[in-house]
Write a structure and sequence with these properties.
The complex is a heterotrimer of chains A (about 300), B (about 375) and C (about 280). Chain A is mainly α. Chain A has 14 helices and five strands. The chains are: A mainly alpha (about 300), B alpha+beta (about 375), C mainly alpha (about 280).
Chain lengths: ~300, ~375, ~280
């Protein structure tokens, strides 16, 4: 039922399109292009082709940093996939059950951390986990796990994992809400029919509910992927741009920031930053592309 | 097959009671239709029989076994939902086999039973399709097939035809009747459509405001409605109601004055009536015919002006307005030459009249 | 309606359900409560008895004094409010207009443009930061709130257009036809017929858009880090970094930052959640 387009259509569409193109689409393309340029020591910018990428992927110094950030990012994503999404699924499944008293209250509370600024969250957890303050140590001793406490945020081996879990704590609300919405969209009569046929709660969940929310689960995964590979704020809030200790919490986002703005002795390089951004873009694009081309279609077919 | 007994059943949600004192026995192999307007409680009652709603008070027995606290699966019932409630992500075959799988039937058994049911319902060529690829009528058969396959003691149908178009509805109605005969199954069927009820049911249970108004065979409900509600509910157009006053009553009959000069003797049990009481006479449109001078003096007669004529082809309806404002509908077969504005008289035999007292209860008619 | 088709052990399940949900709620609330409670304590109180409520001995508002005394805090709040408010208004208006244009009118490249916009949902705008900064330098908008507003509009438009398109598409055709038959102009139809009808969608979009803008650290850091233009999020970050050892002040600052959100959330939570569950699953 499309109306014929005239001047009004243009007027309606133009402002949004202009701003979006000017400040989102074009900068992205410009960045991709800028990655093909190099800055020499006096700040002179010239075309260098794929030189930046060569540096990033083969130069010991650059590649080391890139690989480190990449590996960290993958671990970051893995923890979210293994912890955040199953927890979100569990909470959403429980909330969508019939007759749970106070479900609305639970929902409200559980969604709260998503609204808090990363600064608040980062610092709050820093305080809580701080060995100086001793709150978590006290709590763990209460439960008998006192000896397992350690300055996790400050240790190379555990820092990233800890920050990832803090991030999970913050963001569980969003996949929880999305999955919850998908669960309550399942027609009640379909679940009743299964119950009448003798399906118990477990079977209803596995055979009826889960298959029908697979597309949403896929969406949640891809959103997590994009979010994780773009992550910066929490690391910055907790560890600063240096992503210590010893770069063990470095993600692509923080590496990008440092490359772009420089840190300590090393000056920032817009061109190298642009090249790095291009690589990040390719990583994200391939993930998203893979999802849409392969997984999403299959999930839709199963679920409908 | 099974016998269903409901004793003194009632249902409340918190402080509001929606079903009152339901007593009903469904005999083995019977098809009982629960019928009534929206909100009368028929769907709630069906869901209670199914086990999807708790029973607040009373007892329910299937084949003598008390099932109040049994979950649906253990009652030996199968339900066909109004929206069919097919599992959208499974093929027709998987849909039909689901219940069997849960009860532990092995692959061969499942395949055999699914195929047999599918053949009986003419959907065997659809077994590998998904619900979204099927038409409404096909989906409904799958829903029925899903129920048949489990060989339940009791079949429950929740307004299965309401989502189909008119032509398909008639066709499917006939198929359901055939199915009932073939399976010799006990069925409880809910609908708001009284034509469906009259044609399908071995017995009909008319419900209103949470109570059973009357339970009986279609003919019984037609000929001997227990109250004004049942009389009005059965039959289309609705039966005509004419106010009257009692003159003399006995258990053999009642003499009623309809309007000045028109007195009629109706063969009903008027023992509970007193002279001078206000009552209502019910006349079905098909019993009201245009006066042709052949009626005996004992009949009832109304004169007035035609306000509307509806020609339906095989029958026609004449709407009459009398001088005192009374509006009547008459139905007769074939066409008519009458026109709007014509002044005519309608008459009915006293043997076809129903009498209802002030509370709406019917006076028992002589059989 | 109460439906318990599986009645046996429904009670037991209930206990387990509440244990799990309640347990996680505890996990959510404890950190926040800890911060709030301890912000009202003196330094000694914070260290000696972090888990306890402030007693008469430990009650102290010194932290708040320090934070509130810092006049910049109010200014930062205003900055955040301006940036978030203006961006949100623009996103809603321009987004609705674009959604309307894309769903209502058929023209060449319609679907392509929609895809172009949708692309922005998946690809993070931050990746273009290098070029964005260069643009702002060229436009002389560095360290202005305008720069932030423009970027946030560009960031929020794709999702807004997608969600609003769904709702705009549901406006009954009869309404539009009737208006057109009456000779009502296209602009009038949009502002007076369509916009009022998509109000629930507007709430959903507002939620998804407002929170990331208010809480954003990246763009204020890159585009507008000056004292004049600091947002409250950036400001608290700097403040906390500065006073790292002054626990009093830090906790007070955090509490102050949390409070407005908690209050707003308590007031609007029902609409918020309804909006999300209604519109988000697409």
């Amino acid at each position: 039922m499309k109306q014929k387009a005239g001047w009004p259509a243009l007027v309606f569409l133009a402002p949004a399109l202009v701003i979006y193109t000017a400040f989102s689409a074009w900068p992205l393309l410009a960045t991709l292009r800028l990655g093909l340029y190099g800055t020499d020591d006096v700040g002179h910018v010239s075309f260098v082709g794929l030189d930046n990428f060569r540096k990033l992927l083969f130069d010991e110094h650059w590649f080391g940093a890139f690989r480190n950030a990449m590996v960290d990012n993958v671990e970051f994503f893995a923890i979210h996939t293994l912890v955040q999404n199953p927890v979100a699924l569990l909470l959403a499944a429980l909330l969508s059950l019939r007759g749970v008293r106070g479900a609305a209250a639970y929902r409200t509370v559980l969604f709260l951390p998503t609204l808090l600024s990363v600064v608040i969250i980062g610092f709050t957890w820093q305080l809580i986990l701080s060995p100086l303050w001793g709150v978590s140590e006290k709590l763990m001793t209460l439960v008998g796990l006192g000896e397992h406490f350690g300055p996790w945020l400050g240790q190379e081996e555990t820092a990233l994992r800890t920050i990832a879990l803090i991030s999970v704590w913050q963001f569980v609300g969003i996949p929880m809400m999305l999955i919850y919405a998908a669960l309550i969209a399942i027609p009640e009569e379909v679940v009743e029919a299964a119950a009448v046929e003798g399906a118990g709660a477990w079977r209803i969940f596995w055979s009826i509910r889960l298959p029908l929310i697979l597309p949403t689960l896929g969406l949640v995964n891809i959103l997590t992927f994009v979010g994780n590979f773009n992550a910066f704020d929490l690391i910055y809030a907790v560890k600063g741009a240096l992503a210590g200790p010893n770069f063990s919490t470095d993600l692509l986002g923080t590496l990008f920031y440092r490359t772009f703005f420089g840190y300590q002795s090393e000056t920032g390089s817009a061109t190298m930053g642009a090249a790095l951004a291009t690589l990040m873009f390719l990583v994200i694009l391939s993930g998203v592309g893979l999802y849409f081309l392969v997984i999403q279609r299959r999930l839709q077919r199963i679920a409908s | 097959m099974a016998r269903l007994e409901l004793s003194n059943l009632s249902k409340s949600y918190g402080s509001s009671q929606v079903l009152h004192d339901i007593d009903l026995v469904v005999a083995d192999g019977e098809l009982v239709v629960l019928v009534g307007p929206s909100g009368c409680g028929k769907s709630t009652l069906l869901r209670m029989i199914c086990g999807l709603e708790d029973i607040t008070e009373g007892e329910m027995r299937i084949d003598g076994e008390r099932v109040n606290d049994l979950p649906p699966a253990r009652r030996g019932i199968a339900m066909v939902f109004q929206s069919y409630a097919l599992y959208p992500h499974m093929t027709v075959r998987a849909n039909m086999a689901f219940g069997l799988k849960i009860h532990g039937a092995d692959k061969a058994q499942r395949a055999a039973r699914v195929l047999a049911a599918a053949k009986a319902l003419h959907i065997d060529h659809l077994l590998d399709r998904r619900p979204r690829e099927l038409s409404g009528g096909q989906r409904q058969r799958v829903a029925i097939g899903r129920a048949i396959v489990r060989e339940p003691r009791l079949f429950l149908f929740d307004e299965p035809l309401s989502n189909l178009d008119a032509a398909l509805r008639v066709k499917t109605r006939i198929e359901l009747a055939r199915l009932h005969r073939e399976l010799a199954a006990t069925m409880v069927y809910v609908t708001h459509d009284q034509v469906e009820a009259m044609t399908l049911g071995d017995r009909i249970v008319v419900m209103h405001e949470g109570r059973i108004q009357q339970a009986g065979t279609p003919l019984e409900l037609y000929e001997h409605p227990a109250n004004r509600f049942v009389a009005s509910f059965i039959g289309s157009p609705t039966l005509n109601l004419v106010p009257a006053t009692t003159q003399a009553c006995s258990s053999a009959g009642a003499r009623l004055e309809v309007h000045a000069g028109c007195v009629v003797d109706v063969a009903v049990d008027g023992a509970s009536l007193l002279p001078g009481q206000a009552v209502e006479i019910g006349i079905r449109p098909e019993h009201l015919r245009v006066a042709d001078g052949n009626m005996s003096a004992a009949g009832i007669r109304f004169g007035g002006e035609i306000t509307l004529i509806e020609q339906l082809g095989e029958s026609h309806l004449v709407y009459l307005r009398c001088a005192d404002g009374l509006e009547l509908v008459s139905r007769a077969s074939g066409h008519t030459r009458l026109r709007v504005g014509d002044r005519i008289a309608l008459e009915a035999d006293p043997g076809t009249l129903h009498v209802f007292d002030a509370r709406g209860a019917a006076c028992v008619r002589r059989r | 309606m109460s439906r318990h088709p599986i009645r046996a052990s429904a009670l037991g399940r209930s206990a387990l359900v509440h244990l799990t949900l309640g347990g996680y709620c505890l996990l959510v609330l404890c950190p926040i409560l800890l911060v709030l409670l301890n912000s009202f304590k003196s330094r000694a109180g914070i260290f000696d008895d972090p888990l306890g409520l402030p007693t008469t001995a430990t009650l102290s508002l010194a932290g708040y004094g320090k934070v509130l005394g810092d006049a910049a805090v109010g200014h930062m709040f205003v900055n955040s409010a301006i940036v978030t408010g203006v961006s949100l208004a623009a996103i809603l208006l321009l987004g609705a207009m674009a959604a309307w244009a894309l769903t209502e009118y058929g023209f060449f490249g319609n679907r392509l443009l929609a895809l172009f916009l949708a692309f922005g949902i998946m690809v993070p705008i931050r990746l273009g930061s290098v070029a964005i900064l260069q643009e702002m330098v060229a436009l002389d908008l560095v360290n202005t709130l305008t720069a932030l507003v423009l970027v946030y509009i560009a960031q929020g438009l794709p999702l807004a257009v997608m969600i609003l398109s769904e709702f705009v598409g549901q406006v009954p055709q009869e309404l539009k036809d009737a208006a057109r038959c009456d000779g009502v102009g296209e602009y009038r139809i949009f502002f007076q017929v369509v916009l009022p009808l998509i109000r629930p969608a507007v709430a959903t979009v507002a939620v998804f858009t407002m929170v990331p803008i208010w809480n954003d650290l990246w763009f204020p850091l890159i585009l507008a880090p000056s004292e004049q233009t600091q947002t409250i999020t950036l400001g608290v970050q700097q403040f906390v970094g500065q006073f790292a050892t002054d626990w009093n002040a830090v906790l007070a600052a955090l509490s102050l930052a949390v409070l407005p959100i908690l209050v707003l959330y308590a007031v609007f939570s029902r609409q918020l959640i309804r909006g999300i569950t209604a519109g988000a699953v697409k």
